[in-house]
Amino acid sequence: MAPGAEDSKVLVSRLLREVLEGREDPEGFFAVCVSVLGQQQTRSQFLSLIRPLSSADSPLHRVLTSVYQGYYQTEDNELELALALSISDMKDYQISAPSQESRLQQPKDSSNQISSVRLTPKSEARGGSHAQLAVAAGKRNTSSSQSGAWGSVCPPKTAQETELQKGARADKHDKETSGKGPTVCVFKPSASFSGLDMGQMTKDGDLNELEKPKRPKNRRQRRKACGQQVIGLPSSLSAPRPILLWFRRDLRLCDNPALIASLEVGAPVIPVFIWSPEEEEGPGITVAAGGACKYWLHQALFCFCSSLERIGSHLIFLKANAEGNAKGSSLCALKDLIKETGARTVLANALYEPWLKERDEEVVSALQKDGVECKLFHSYCLRDPYSVSTVGVGLRGIGSVSHFMSCCRQNPGSALGVPLDPPASLPTPSQWPQGVSLDILGLACMPRRKDGTTIDWSANIRKSWDFSEEGAHAKLEAFLNDGVYRYEKESGRADAPNTSCLSPYLHFGQLSPRWLLWDAKGAHCRPPKFQRKLAWRDLAYWQLTLFPDLPWESLRPSYKALRWSSDRGHLKAWQRGQTGYPLVDAAMRQLWLTGWMNNYMRHVVASFLIAYLHLPWQEGYRWFQDTLVDADVAIDAMMWQNGGMCGLDHWNFVMHPVDAAMTCDPCGTYVRKWCPELKDLPNEFIHKPWKCPTSMLRRAGLTLGQTYPHRVITDLEERRSQSLQDVTLVRKKFGQYVDKHTGCDLVPLPSRLVSEALGLSHSNGGAVEAGKQFLLPVITRMEFKHQLEDPDADAGSNPYNAVLKGYVSRKRDETIAFFNERDFTASVIYEAAQRKERLESDYRKMEGLPQPLALRGKARRTPTAKDRFSIVPGGAVTSPW
Ligand SMILES: Cc1cc2nc3c(=O)[nH]c(=O)nc-3n(C[C@H](O)[C@H](O)[C@H](O)COP(=O)(O)OP(=O)(O)OC[C@H]3O[C@@H](n4cnc5c(N)ncnc54)[C@H](O)[C@@H]3O)c2cc1C
């Protein structure tokens, strides 16, 4: 019988007392509230229910408040994202004074606190008038804090730099110690390691201190506000020698911290771009500079050169002719340029791929030795991935965007700040250095046929995009005026432009994520789903910093042994859009012709490659890297790892190549556009021409096997079952990588995360013993857990069969969301109950009391993998080996 309202309240007050006495944990208490009061009442009454605690036990009150906020985060997504990504200083156009900022920064770890140029209110502007430059629309001057001694990411305060150096050393150490030996360590669950660490939360993440940021009323208002900022000058940077402004993936004038910082100096600025493909590639197979990306880069550089010329400047191109020796490196090119120009300062915006970060650190220290000041600014992501910490959150659910956002919320980095206006002009040197022509970089080389004619594969890409910064802003404007209104519910549609199409601009830094976030928040329609996408982007970079092998090495050890197909014919058919499945083919042809497809279609083609063709995810990753104009090592690798069943966050679904069309292309418009040979088929058969009667095929002018290919595989169900059984096989074979309690896969942790979990600072990473592996249960597809219990069952009979059937309305999505939420609540309650039982049992043992007998007639069942799991793996690290 359901308890009455009074009973519920009594129960809740009793439990609250238990929390106060430390006998119940806050998360468990919250779960019980949700269970007995229901969603609505908990939402409306929880905060008043715990209000008495604010004076009696304020730390506990804060913890409970943040559990509540965490739970309802999706409903107040803007606030959530704001907190998560530390845009707490957006609350006013008055830019925060340093003291206020430091209050919001995490006191312990300033190592990776980075910021863009700090804007200060007029009254705080410093520096001599000779260097005050009027920029952009208003008489805005630029400022920064003091100049730093070495080229860390700003702000260049000495103490922070030291911390940064420590951080860099620790990262290096991480690399050295991670994954060296086979020893598997028994990881004792500690408070900070298992799920939410409430103690830490109050210490590090006082949510009450962060106010909800006020949004600018409209975008124009924000820009005007930016334009009115008066920015002071650093004293030590006022050398008259030219400054090298090293552009990389920040090809923009708007909101470019390094560019604005270069203006502060009052010296001539020499913008330079160095092409060094070997450095881009890094140590493994990343295909960082694929064909389509290089083509985009060529065009973007061309446009950017014109933009710089419009403000009276010029872009110098250099090519690092790397042949595996230091002579051909970016450092070498910079040194030569420094010699030629006499520059004593190099400024750039930071990049976060581990190998590029390492390269930059080497450049900085080498130049510093030569007496050249070098500074890096943060702007590529919303959050510097090296500053994200799991402290206070734990590792449960790692890999999901919710977990990532909780980490950001609990450990706020430096404030995001307001976007910066573009400069109106750049001071020029009296003499420009030589450089090479853009064509010499060889970014847009087209292959030649035997007869000498060129194969211009880029013609359609050229037609499809405007490669300039203005093009980025036009796309953003168009999206905010139109697509954004359909984004929340219809972003999966392939037949309508409902997403922003901004990914290539974000990748090449033609649009800063900060600018995008501000505009998105200032727009009339602000779908939370869109804002979360930027958190996804940051999450990918965080994962790459934790797992530098992400682009080529499966994160789940046992899956490395998966039986993958090596059928080159299948791979070729997939790459060329000739699989015989119209939806897959349309998407792959769109990719080839335009260098892009939307997120939903990427899921469709990835599912097809992996679950049906059984080809390794690395093949998909590499093809995407070569053909996408937005190919991004971090995002692409994370998504392919997840889709390829090897990443931290298993996709809990498989897209069916025919049924998915119901959601994304119900009338076949998309297929007709990219597979024109099918255009005359009736809607009924457009996604399955093999079912079309011969007479209709004839009328549509289609001959299967000639004008359109036969299907490369026909028995989809069988292929899926095979894939499932292959996974089960490796999970059985490598049982040491499956958590016995939860059925989740176990993933070796990088030492940076182990250090955080053990409460060690990164710089003390040495305390984590080399050669030991720490394993963590990670999000695992439910059907895999179930299949382990019944390995021979076919995919169709698995109650958690992950194949999405496709849907025409959002009802299915909503139902799934409902089930996930319900399961999550259930699993939290279940865990709370278990914890309580354990505590009671320990207490009885200590007191020498007998253990209670199990209730007769109510046999207590050990949960099995057949039970419904939430998508978040149950339990933290509990598996002793
Ligand atoms: C297998 C696979 C591979 C992918 N490879 C890439 C890639 O190489 N480069 C890339 O930028 N995106 C990649 N994505 C993510 C996503 O598909 C694209 O970012 C998105 O389709 C770009 O279109 P949009 O700008 O209209 O996105 P919108 O939906 O308008 O989103 C806005 C921005 O958010 C970011 N974003 C959106 N979705 C994601 C995501 N899932 N993960 C991280 N960031 C996201 C992008 O920067 C995007 O431009 C991949 C997805 C899958 C399934």
UniProtKB/TrEMBL annotation:
Which Pfam families does the entry mention? DNA_photolyase, FAD_binding_7
Q: Where does FAD bind?
A: Y487, T499, S500, C501, L502, S503, F530, D630, A631, D632
| Record-level GO cellular component terms | cytoplasm; nucleus
Q: Where is the composition biased (Basic residues)?
A: 214-225
All copies of domain Photolyase/cryptochrome alpha/beta, residue ranges: 241-382
Site note Electron transfer via tryptophanyl radical, residues: W564, W617, W640
Give one GO biological process term: response to stress
Does this UniProt record's set of keywords contain Zinc? no
What start and end residues bound the annotated signal peptide? none
Provide ranges: composition bias, Polar residues: 98-118, 140-149
Q: Which UniProt keywords apply?
A: Chromophore, FAD, Flavoprotein
In terms of InterPro entries, this protein maps to:
Crypto/Photolyase_FAD-like_sf, Crypto/Photolyase_N_sf, Cryptochr/Photolyase_FAD-bd, Cryptochrome/DNA_photolyase_1, DNA_photolyase_1_CS_C, DNA_photolyase_N, Rossmann-like_a/b/a_fold
What GO MF terms are annotated?
deoxyribodipyrimidine photo-lyase activity; DNA binding; FAD binding
Q: Which PANTHER family does the record cross-reference, listed alphabetically?
A: CRYPTOCHROME, SI:CH1073-390K14.1
Q: Which family does it belong to?
A: Belongs to the DNA photolyase class-1 family.
Q: What is this protein called?
A: Deoxyribodipyrimidine photo-lyase-like
What is the species listed in this Swiss-Prot or TrEMBL entry? Echeneis naucrates (Live sharksucker)
